[in-house]
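quick one before i forget lol
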Amino acid sequence: MVKKLKSEWLNQPGINILAGIVVALALIPEALAFSIIAGVDPMVGLYAAFIIATVTAIIGGRPAMISGATGAVALLVTPLVKDYGVEYLFAATILMGLIQLTLGILKVGRLMKFIPRSVMIGFVNALGIMIFMAQIKHIFGISISTYIYVIITLLIVYIIPRFFKAIPATLIAIVVLTAFYMYTGSDVRTVGDLGSIKQTLPHFLFPNVPFNLETFQIIFPYSLSMAIVGLVESLLTAKIVDDATDTYSSKNKESRGQGIANLITGFFGGMGGCAMIGQTLINVKSGANSRLSTFTAGIVLIFMVIVLGGVVIQIPMPILAGIMVMVSLGTIDWNSFKYIKKAPKTDAIVMVLTVIIVLMTHNLAIGVVVGVIFSALFFATKISKVEVVYEDLGKKHLFSFKGQIFFVSIDSMMEQIDLNIEDSIIELNFNHAHLWDDSAVDAIDTIVRKFEEKNNIVYVEKLNADSRKIVSEISQLNENHLN
């Protein structure tokens, strides 16, 4: 235990602390921008970034992964905040945490293997498109100065990383353009237009909402969506870091950690969040490999808010909108166009369908669920073709089965069998087939019964061990039928 704690916390402390500082600088603009997306006071996003980062650093399942307020979750709660207010957001965040904690206890992490790559690609693309669309209202129809700030922000974020990476380009854009705004007083909206930033630590609170069934009915759909989206993005990010660092992380522990972090966040006036792919990659590429980097990011973030809060409220909103445009463009998988051409048609359809459903419903969770369902249906259809080879050997008739026999493939199998044979020996050979469910067993029982009704002697041969086991448990056949 001591050895594990040392490796997760004290491995290369200098490198991890510096990486955490860099990430903290990158967290501030995005936490502010995600607050804007959700339609809440900037402190809601900043508090969430601080609390979620520090809590997951301690109890999360993936060292060096960065979690905080995210666009994926912010997009989901916009209607809730608009219709009911921020107190309902806090209540929904608490319920979100409870749902995630429960799913973590139930070991939901193992379900990640059921999300196909096509759905993952669609998920990422839809997220990028939604973040981009959310910026339109902060860019167009405001002022000429707004367009200028956005364009300059895009240029800074795009060009500077090519020559200088020690400080995040997003932070450079904020510092330089905010200083320019404070000097010139340009005609643009600022963060302060959304609400004041309090240079204080978050404090414990109970959401000021009625604790009754009506409130539960209001927040539950949002909480469930946030919980699922948050876990999907967190577990996907954890897998990305696993692959990048050749290490393994506990997905179930991460699920529980995310749940506890969101639970605490809701009680301290923060919005829900999850793992952040961009900031996590910044952290890992900066050399981070321990929990200390994530913890440092959270602590440095709240320090900067308390000390520099008066400056933060003067940040022009078009800078944040420009940053989020670049985040959205970086989120979209531009290789998807090649993927659509080269991948199997069913996989390409699933990817496109996931994107379309998300954009239609504005709900990433629904898109993922629909994508998984259609992927499963396409897969079931693909393997549902059973080949039956028939041989007439005089008084003996041989049917050889090849394929996966389950509820989807039964009709295909039955259509290939001539049940009009009489007074013969029938052999059903399953050497190259597998029986998967009770529907398959029932189909075999039906075939045997119909043949025996016409005075045939029927033998079921060469079942593999698993098929024989399920037949012995639920079939109407007796030992005389089995060879």
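fyi The domain at 387-474 is CATH 3.30.750.24 (Transcription Regulator spoIIAA).
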